[in-house]
Amino acid sequence: MEKLKPSVSKKPPSRKTPFHDAHKLQYGLEVVACDAGGAACSVRCLFCRYFGREEAPKGKRKRTQNMKYYNAPFRPQNYIEHNTSAHSAKWGEYTGLRDAEKAVFFADLTSRSNQLVAHFDTESAVLRFSFPELIVTELIGKVFFNAEDEDDDMTVARALRAFGSVVDGVYTMEIKTPLRFTLSVKHLSVG
Q1: Among 167, 165, 141, which residue's Cα sits nearest to residue 154?
Q2: Total number of domains in the chain
Q3: Does 70 fall in a domain?
């Protein structure tokens, strides 16, 4: 019987670059978890915590609003890469500050998760719906309103005004308060 050869492709031991306290101030970080010996296990980006991520100018997808956490190995290259891509404006402002100014940069700020803006979708500030003119005039103009009423023409005209103007046979309707709209739709759907 042949002897089995030991594996040649043994992995080298993993490198555990420890976290340096100077990186807190230099890169805008805070330690959130330590091991039994007091060494940092997990570090959080303060820019994500207080400002959230900036939208990418040419991004096809919506950027996540999750906070960035770092685990060992703690490399400054990773901090710089994240800060320049996710917080370019605030990071540029932060790097121009002296150490004394950096120390108070996050002092009086409220965490983004405690701000009202974090819970609303600011990207879709307006909802737009398009309806063919025939559907709007037939369904809303004739079905919902009785033709025998005295002020029928005036009431129908007022109701159709909510749909905006007709362009190329299409009514375009804009809802400027989407949160209120979705809440009322959910309320009506209950019955």
Answers
A1: 141
A2: 2
A3: yes
